[in-house]
Amino acid sequence: MTCHRLLASGLIILSIAALPCVWAESSAPLPADALAVLRRIVIQHNGRNKPLDSFARETLQLIAGEPRIGHDDPVQTVFSIMADPERWQEVPLVSVPFMPLREGLGMDRKASRISYNDLVASRKLMRMLPSIVEKQRREEKLSILENETMDAFQRFAALSGLLEQKLNLVPSPRDDDPVWLPVSEPSGYASAQQDVIHTAWTELMRAVRASDGPAVTVAARHFSGVLQQWRPHAYSPAWRIDLEVFYNHVNPFRIAQLLYLLAIIALVLGLSQSASSWARVGLWAVSTAFIVHGTGIAMRVVIGGRPPVSNFFETTLWLPFVGVAIALIFERVFRADAITELHIMVVARPAAIGVIGPLGQEGAEDAVLHVKHRDMLMNGKLEPGRRRGRQQRFELSDV
Length: 399
Hints:
Elements: H1 2-17, H2 32-39, E1 42-45, E2 48-51, H3 52-64, H4 74-83, H5 85-88, E3 92-95, H6 99-104, E4 113-115, H7 116-122, H8 124-137, H9 144-163, E5 168-170, E6 181-182, H10 191-209, H11 213-229, H12 238-250, H13 252-269, H14 276-304, H15 312-334, H16 345-356, H17 360-364, E7 367-368, E8 377-378, H18 389-396
Antiparallel strand pairs: 1-2, 3-4, 5-6, 7-8
């Protein structure tokens, strides 16, 4: 009984720890109808066409370590950064979680983030990179500090891309070229078409910077229409984009997490012979969590178009799902209160994993395991897992 209660208490602590931190920095709110349009604009990023809603969450997660800043919508924050770069260059956004790297960058040991301007002014980060590039060329193993330096550079580069509005929003004008073009330089289109794209984008940025709600709504709709009028077949079906935006906002694994937590608490209370109603609540919560859990996995499969075990994050979702399925089958077959009485841990164990695995895409996703093997990643993105070393070597070689 004591062990079971400790387990439930530990899971409650994990759930609280997974909640996102609140930032003090905020920007002028965008109208809800404008955000609805902006979220569904398609961008090509990391080899996949996705809605701007996903891009904004992933980019902020990379740069700041969290998918949103304060209570602002991620899309709102990204557009605010692009429309008002001077203000955001002063804001400490770039996450530096590794203490020795903070010292190397001249940061306060208690400060977990540094601003773009501070990185540019000190140039300490840039001075660290040439030796790392040379070490990579010799195929030597990098230290933890060197890996952390590379990660900091990736965050800096991602923020630079936002400040310079380097977004691949424009499909290539050629059918044989799958690579999309940056909105700032849609080469390949006729001059008149490029002017239309530039004008629509400039008007949108001007409206966002002025915090003019009605103008933002009109400009967002106009820009979205401009992008699709020449190459409509280059875009994913609207239902798939809507599904991904829905998935981002519903966050089914967060719901499943809370239901699994409720199930464990109820089943622990149901151990008492006089509390059979708690046992029924626990079984209901496990079954409901299982359905929500499976729905979330199915949505990822449909959106990503691949099996649900392509990266470590997805594996932590799939394995507990199978574990709960087996437990429910045993409960159904034996019909002897196998879950609610002596065999409660048949469900509690996979349910516990289910809570720890899908800790929401705000707590556990993209959480770097700072252990001996630094490149272990719990990746909640919809792209399949990949090795990062070769990609980073290529990017760092240009520094």
